[in-house]
Design a protein that fits this description.
The protein is mainly α. It contains 14 helices and seven strands.
């Protein structure tokens, strides 16, 4: 059984690497052609940025694979032996959090490289080493505190019911819903400084926009995201009375009020179409399938691992195999998400004007150095948004290729 799982995981890693190789080759080919949506140098920088990130992800995949093999080939057994004298709950918390923290520590350098090497090279990183350490420590402490409670409850469920996987799914799904509700509060409390939007004219426009779609918010806020990153972003967070609109200060700086209203119109389109609830339902279905799968793993697997079918081993296997199972499921979620983006664009165009949304999307692509093209297989497995060129064309935009000789039409590279 172990050998079969390793073969499947190896295949998963090989597919990931193949997709990355195809994406890198495709971008390297396309970036040498006429620029799309941005100047030639900006287009080249965006392509190089995408390639550098993809190369780093390939190295990460190799390291993740190594960690998987280490755990499956003896580390689970070793940790189980070390904790044998402890109570079931202590065993579970120590083993599961121990695995998470060890994996996080091994992968930590990649986060540092992504931020202080790649992002810094392309002008995104504004965070200091001290800020990075602080954020990492806070994230780790939150993982320990929240994770300990979750592991403790699931451990109690496993030991008290033969249908533990069903009740565990119900509990985790409730946690997912709760995190969606309180995410803005948690983020504002521990990471970003969030203040009410002071621009009264812009605030009134946003409030008028929300009133048109029936979006009831606890307020419009500005996040000091620029202290960490130069990218432009905004989000609608929370559920029920906890909903709030949060704009990154970088977004307010770069977009005109009309463009900003169009972008928020897009986001409100997601609300009007119930996309958040659709996504939660999709995550619920995915979690149900995963718990049903992991709740019925054959006893032979535990015998080969040399361990009992105990709560902490079940949860450790869940953590180890989750990326592989998610990889298979994510294309379905991606297809639904891409469809929702087109619908939200239509709403954004109706509420804020198609021309303003087009201009905003072009600015977002340029400022965030988002290369506008990707290989079809990469889009199928990884992207939650349609190609920006397709979105712009759906909004009626005229897409042209920019070269040193000027603009040419039509776009020949799609």
């Amino acid at each position: 059984m172990i050998s079969s799982i390793i073969v499947l995981y190896s295949l998963y890693i090989l597919i990931r690497l193949y997709i990355s190789v195809m994406q890198i080759g495709y971008i390297n080919q396309m970036k040498r052609k006429g620029a799309l949506l941005m100047g030639e140098q900006a287009y080249l920088d965006a392509g190089n940025y995408a390639v550098d990130k993809e190369k780093l992800s390939m190295i990460e995949a190799f390291v993740e694979y190594g960690l998987f093999l280490v755990w499956m080939m003896g580390m689970i057994y070793w940790l189980d032996i070390q904790l044998m004298a402890q109570s079931t709950v202590v065993q579970s918390i120590a083993a599961v959090l121990g695995m998470l923290l060890i994996n996080s520590l091994v992968m930590l350098p990649f986060g540092w490289i992504a931020k202080f090497k790649i992002d810094a090279q392309y002008g995104f990183n504004r965070s200091s080493t001290a800020q990075f350490v602080k954020d990492t420590l806070i994230s780790t402490l939150l993982t320990i505190v929240i994770g300990s409670v979750i592991v403790w409850i699931i451990s109690m469920i496993i030991t008290s019911s033969t249908l533990w996987w069903l009740w565990s799914f119900s509990f985790i799904f409730a946690v997912v819903v709760a995190l969606n509700m309180f995410f803005p509060t948690i983020r504002a409390l521990f990471f970003d400084k969030v203040t009410p939007l002071e621009n009264s004219e812009l605030r009134e426009k946003i409030e008028e926009l929300m009133a048109k779609t029936g979006f009831v918010s606890s307020g419009v806020f500005v996040s000091d995201a620029s202290k960490r990153d130069a990218r432009l972003n905004a989000y609608f967070g929370g559920l029920g009375k906890t909903k709030r609109v949060v704009l990154f200060d970088t977004l307010i700086e770069k977009l005109s009020p009309s463009e900003l209203v169009a972008v928020l119109g897009h986001e409100l389109g997601h609300f009007a179409h119930g996309d958040l609830y659709k996504n939660i339902a999709m995550v619920g279905a995915m979690l149900f399938g995963m718990f049903a799968l992991f709740g019925n793993l054959p006893e032979s697997l535990y015998l080969e691992l040399g361990v009992a079918k105990s709560p902490h081993v079940i949860m450790m296997l869940f953590v180890l195999l989750l990326p592989m199972v998610s990889f298979v499921i994510m294309p379905l979620m991606g297809m639904m998400s891409r469809h929702n983006e087109y619908e939200a664009d239509r709403t954004g165009a109706e509420l804020g004007g198609a021309e303003h949304l087009v201009n905003a999307l072009k600015k977002l692509v340029t400022e965030n150095k988002s290369f506008p093209l990707s290989h079809p297989i990469y889009r199928f497995f990884h992207t939650t948004h349609p190609p920006v060129i397709d979105r712009l064309r759906a909004l009626g935009a005229d897409i042209r290729v920019e070269s040193s000789e000027g603009f040419s039409d039509p776009c020949p590279v799609l």
